[in-house]
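Q: What residues go here?
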């Protein structure tokens, strides 16, 4: 059995929706399968993120702060990308000459 082939099985396991026999099978597979361990931890992260969004206790300032940082990082990345493009164009020009 390889739960990774059926992601709904891992999310059902995470939600405690599996019977003891199925849950046991998933657990023993998780101990030997790194891919499924990673799948499970990303499912956990998604679940926590969703809970965070639904949680009114999460301050709006914190959400704004995260968005600011994410946007700042994106424009930083875009600047770097544009700089790289420019220098690549310079290299191409130098090679053609
Ligand atoms: Zn697996």
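A:
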């Amino acid at each position: 059995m390889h739960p990774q082939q059926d992601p709904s099985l891992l999310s059902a396991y995470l939600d405690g929706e599996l019977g003891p026999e199925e849950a046991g099978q998933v657990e023993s597979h998780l101990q030997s399968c790194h891919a499924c361990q990673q799948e499970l931890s990303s499912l956990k992260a998604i679940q926590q993120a969703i809970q965070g969004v639904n949680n009114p206790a999460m301050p709006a300032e914190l959400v704004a702060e995260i968005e600011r940082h994410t946007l700042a990082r994106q424009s930083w990345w875009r600047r770097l990308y544009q700089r790289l493009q420019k220098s690549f164009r310079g290299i191409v020009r130098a090679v053609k000459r």
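A: Context that may help when evaluating the design: The chain has two domains: 1-57, 59-97. Residues 1 and 24 are 12 Å apart (CA to CA).
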